[in-house]
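DATA SHEET
Item: assembly model
Revision: 1
Owner: S.N.
Input lines:
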Amino acid sequence: QQQVKQSPQSLIVQKGGISIINCAYENTAFDYFPWYQQFPGKGPALLIAIRPDVSEKKEGRFTISFNKSAKQFSLHIMDSQPGDSATYFCAAGGGATNKLIFGTGTLLAVQP
Amino acid sequence: DTGVSQDPRHKITKRGQNVTFRCDPISEHNRLYWYRQTLGQGPEFLTYFQNEAQLEKSRLLSDRFSAERPKGSFSTLEIQRTEQGDSAMYLCASSLVGARTEAFFGQGTRLTVV
């Protein structure tokens, strides 16, 4: 019940295209859903986050879509650039500690 | 630099040795988390402090692991009698309590046990 399932495992997108990564959760107690970007040898960097009271949040080229009834959320990267090539992790958190449960990651490669 | 700082960045140790890592959170962040990340996986929660109190420990945190946060500022994570299975990236994150609960991660300490 604590799992967060992430797909796809890897993704190749052409420059200028849209990258879409999906996540699903089971625990309805989760109330905070961030996305992190991680480059090799670096720590995860917070990209964008959403709470279940909204269905969509956009920040620049990054958009989170949230479907509370389906317990699913996704990250859309518009106009993908080679510099976006990294591993992306979704996560879910909540409760008193707000500890995060992470997905298994998606390795994104944006081809020039 | 006002981000989360971790030291050392890399540590190579022989099996059976003890190691200690340090994390300096973002100033005024009262929550501090330790996570472990193995190759190809997402970070896994280890333990959590609010100020100086350690409020939760994961079952992943065996008796060989101990964490402290004296005075509610920096934190240390010690691994005693290291094993090859302890090889991983150890990540520290900090956040505020309350409405703004975004967690910011440090660069991590890469531990290799040989």
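QC remark: Chain B is about 0% helix and 50% strand.
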